[in-house]
Structure formats: structure tokens, C-alpha cells
Amino acid sequence: MSDLLAARSQMAMSLAFHIIFAVVGIGLPVLMVIAERRWQKTGDPIYLELAKRWAKGTAILFAVGAVSGTVLSFELGLLWPAFMEAAGPIIGMPFSLEGFAFFTEAIFLGVYLYGWNRITPRAHLWAGILVAVSGAASGVFVVIANAWMNAPTGFELVNGRIANVDPIAGMMNPMAFQQTLHMTLAALAATGFAVAGIHAFLLLFDRDNAFHRRALSIALLVSAPAALLQPVSGDLSAKAVARLQPAKFAAMEAHFRTGTRVPLLIGGWPDMDKGETAYAIRIPGGLSFLAFGDFDAEVKGLEEFPRGEWPHVPIVHTAFQIMVALGTYLVLVSLWAAWVGWRRRDVGADRRLLVALALATPMGFIAIEAGWTVTEVGRQPWIIYGVMRTADAVTPMPA
Fold this sequence. Notes:
Low-confidence stretches: none
Number of domains: 1
Distance between the termini: 12 Å
Radius of gyration: 23 Å
Shape: globular
Strand content: 5-15%
Number of strands: 10
Helix content: 55-70%
Strand order of the largest sheet: 1-2
Number of helices: 12
Structural class: mainly alpha
């Protein structure tokens, strides 16, 4: 058990570090491209300066992310050899495609960085677009591999071993669309709000600064729509989890006993001995409706599963509540900014909105870390859900 805990802790720390750079690698090139396009249309040199600064940031964070991602690839083989032996023929396909996307991003990032005044403006803009598209594709392929771990398909179990592999069917698993959509929107929202929050904070002290105003407008153009769409993708993901991973769903909601018209819990702390959640706000029938679209639907509780197959309920439930709370805050701020803009008022002149945006700076990244905690801890004790336990996949260490 100590070997398992050490391996999981090391992998968790590496993933928590790497995910920040992966997220920025998806979101920042989008800001960069929008800034360059606005410069080409308006001739405003501030947009050109923004594009160049965000391009430098993309390059630096891309390099760090490449190194941290390499560490993860070594850890997969060194810490989880049994998992790679079983899953390699299936997840090898999305990881190979991620490699193609990674090198495409690297090539066109080089063209973008060194192509100023060397290629035509249209070609330069398209190089930036390809950086953004390949960055997003890289994230999509990695998340597809994780989605397969949550809803494994594309193989047959023969004498307890994976056989007759169909990697395409594995990539098209039932969780792939929901997880990739949710993660891509989260990356855009987190990066956009981080940039918006920084410039909003600086505008509090220099209200007329044109550089910060233009940066804020581009950041909100990316982050606000992503944040507003996120509850839709979250609902799709939750419904898929309720159907395909009922134990994880029960842990997310701290739902212990099977029943109908199950209330939705907001907050609360699970009491594992009593099988109850204290201090929670309850919305009657809310969980049944969110999971199955019917207020009277039956929702399986943790009591339906052997205790040894329960995820760590307090961690999963708390992380889920943090993710939802922070996501709700970003949605409300997005609606506020949209309302101010719709009334043709100056977003950069609304001090209260600037304060709210500044507070939102780290929230997208914290929500992503919490969401991945739900995904990974909630799948335990399985590394491949229903197929291979995490304890069976770790490298055994000599006593």
C-alpha cells in the first residue's frame, strides 16, 4: 500500500504541475491570434504589442510544459508498467496523435515567433491559428486517453486480459466527447480570466491605460463565452458519469442511500460512519433531475457498491463542490461583464466589476485542479474503470 500511495502521490504532483502549462498552451494562443487580427484590421500598435507579448509567453510556457509532459511520460512507464502493458495498444493511438499535434504546434510557433516581417501578414496569422488549433488538439487527444480509462471500450477481456483491440473504438468511448468539451472550455475560461484578472487589477490603479483596456477586452471575449457554456458541458459530463460510473457520481454528491426524488446537496461534509452528509443545503429532487432529467428518478447510492470500491468520498465531494462554486462565480462575473457591455458602458470604468475580475484571476486554474481531482480520485480503486485496479498496476518495490 505504501508503494501505491507513493506512486499515486508522485503522479498527482506531476499532473497538478503540468496541467497549468497545458491549459495555458490551449488558451494563450487564442488571445495571441485575436490580438494580431485586430492589429491587422485597425492598425493599432497596442494590439501588435499584445500579440508579441502573448507569443513570447506562449513560447516560454510551451517549453516548460514540454519538459513537465516528458516527466509524465517517463512516470507512466516507470510507475505503472502493468497499466501500460494492458492499455498501451489502445491509448497509444491518442498519445501518438498528441505527439503529431505537439510537433505541429512547435513548428508553427517557431514560424510565428520568427516570421514577423519575413512572411506575408496572412501567412503569419495562419501560423498563429495553427498554433492555437494544434494546442487544442493536443489537449483533446490526451483527454481522450483519460476518458477511455473512465469508460473503457474497444477491446475484449479474454481470461482476464485485454485482447482483440480496436483503438479507434477506444478513442470513440462514451466519455470522450463530454470530457474533451469540458476540458477545452475550462482551458479557455481559466486562461482568459487569469489574463483578464491581471489587467483588471492594473486598471484599478491606472483607469485610462489603453494597453490594459485592450488586453481586458480580448481576454473577456475568450473567457466569458467559455465560462457561460461550461455549465452545459458540465451537465453533459455529470449525466454520463451517473450512467457509466455510478459509484463516482454517488461520491461526488455524497449520496449514500439509493432512493427516488434524491435531493441535490450544496456543501456539506460526509460522515462516513453514519452514511450521512451534515451541514448541506438540500434541494428536493434536484439530484434525480440533474442525473436523469426526472425529479422522481432513482439514483444509486454508495450502499450499492462494496465498501472496498468506494472512492475517497470526502475528497471527491469537497473537490466537486469547489469546482462548481468557482465555476458559478465565473459564470456570474461573465454575465455581469456581458450586461455592462450590452448597455454600452465601459467595462474598464466599472470599479466593482474590475475588483470581481481581479478576484477571479486564479479561480479557473483552481477549478481545473479540483475537477481533475474529482476525475482521478473518483475513479479509484480502478485505474481502468471496472477492468484493472490501481493497486495491480503499480511497480512493486522490494521490501
